[in-house]
Design goal:
Elements lengths: L2 E6 L7 H10 L6 E4 L12 H5 L4 H11 L3 E6 L1 E2 L2 E2 L1 H13 L8 E7 L7 H13 L3 E8 L2 H4 E2 L4 E2 L2 H17 L3
Parallel strand pairs: 1-2, 1-3, 3-6, 6-7
Antiparallel strand pairs: 4-5, 8-9
Helix pairs in contact: 3-4
Length: 179
């Protein structure tokens, strides 16, 4: 059994990317999945001056959780066709603790948004940037038009095509992290 760390790139308490993380993490039974709720993490804005004081304890704890996990499931949110400032800030802090903080981590990368592109720009940016820090994106999935395709009350994907896509991606990811 492998340990997987799952989280969204959003600090919103009503994050739709967190809802997607919950849906996907519940589908994985053959591995241990720890889901973080990022809205509970107060992470100060990175700066060179702040860095001289040392990484905040919450960032050190996140770094250790990533380091102690074999794989990651991350769902990135998008603001103005880019990852959120919150998520970029997390990457800035983690990469200063250790440049290759994702070294050899297999990643299931996802995104969703209310729009028809499903956070595709943030997804593509993250695919690129994760490799820079040593991560290996083995699967990815984008859910467009979240509110039309996701049932918030049930926590399920309503659209049959997207449901099949998630099943395929999760199955493939689960198989790839067994290796």
């Amino acid at each position: 059994m492998n340990k997987i760390l799952a989280f969204a790139g959003s600090n919103s308490p009503t994050s739709i990317n967190h809802q997607l993380i919950l849906n996907v993490s519940q589908r994985i039974s053959e591995h241990e999945v720890e889901v973080l709720k990022m809205s509970e993490m107060e992470i100060p804005m990175f700066s060179i001056v702040r860095e001289k004081e040392g990484a905040p304890q919450v960032v050190k704890e996140l770094y250790e959780k990533i380091r102690n996990s074999k794989s990651l499931i991350i769902s990135v949110n998008e603001n103005n066709r880019m990852v959120s400032a919150y998520f970029k800030n997390i990457i800035d802090w983690l990469s200063r603790i250790e440049r290759k903080f994702l070294q050899d981590k297999k990643i299931l990368l996802m995104s969703t948004s209310p729009g028809r592109h499903g956070g595709a720009a943030a997804l593509e940016y993250s695919k690129f940037i994760f490799t820079r820090f040593g991560g290996v994106v083995v699967e990815s999935f984008s859910l467009p038009q979240f509110y039309e395709n996701f049932d918030l009350e049930k926590g399920t994907i309503k659209n049959e095509v997207f449901e099949l896509g998630v099943v395929e991606v999760v199955t493939s990811f689960s198989q790839q992290i067994k290796e």
